[in-house]
Amino acid sequence: MFNLSELEKTLGTTFIDKSLLQRALTHRSYLNENPDYPRSDNERLEFLGDAVLDFLTAKYLYNHFPEIAEGGLTSLRAALVKRETLARFAAALNLGPYLLLSRGEAESGGRKRQAILCAAFEALVGAILLDQGLQAAEGFIVRCIEPEISRILDEELYKDAKSMLQELTQGRLQITPIYRTVAERGPDHAKEFTVEVLIGDAAYGRGIGHNKQVAEQEAAKVALQSMRRELGARPIGFSKTLRVSS
User: Fold this and answer.
1) Which residues belong to CATH 1.10.1520.10 in the chain?
2) Element holding 4 (H helix, E strand)
3) What top-level class would CATH report for the domain 5-155?
4) Which of 24-28, 66-70, 186-190 has the least mean pLDDT?
5) What would you report as the CA-atom Rg of the chain, rounded to the nearest whole angstrom?
6) Which residues are the active-site residues?
7) Which of 87, 102, 120, 179, CA to CA, is 20 to 30 A from 53?
8) If we measure between CA atoms, which residue out of 55, 51, 52, 45 comes closest to residue 123?
């Protein structure tokens, strides 16, 4: 086992029950390779943490952004609790080196894999809740999400790229983007898709993903950058002058 005291300093949280923190860091692949390990994996804690994150993030946004309607709050919450954001929180907290993974998972880059980092972060929230209660879990979550909110508003990350691109092209050009798959690689269980987005007759971006939906979003992000440069378009979304309510 790792010495977890340094991680606790980074987290700003000292666990009463250290086994909860150990469980939060235990991926199921480790148990497959170490059947005699006395603790369970982090999946039940992940389930709990996911629910707590949704609730406490919604509570924070409701209290601090009274001028935003329900649809906007929903979009903001989705941006804050999506896999990429939670994985970034986990990386910032340096969870990767402390994860218990199978040798194969670790050697294949599991300590940096978004799905594993996201699950570990959610499990950590669940562990803090069980160890120290709802108030401690809320304080931990708020410390993570507050710096992220400004970035999400500034970069319009509360909206998915496909929706933003469609708003831009229909509003400026009266054209709807078209997505086409231009390549598929890899075995059935690990496909990689390359998708191109067309605006009119011109290709404005390509994206790669493990499914077509992810690849389309990546292509839309590239196209958005190109279209905004070309049209000189301003971002569409919440006003950047919003003030957080105290």
Assistant:
1) 5-155
2) none
3) mainly alpha
4) 186-190
5) 21
6) 50, 122
7) 102
8) 45
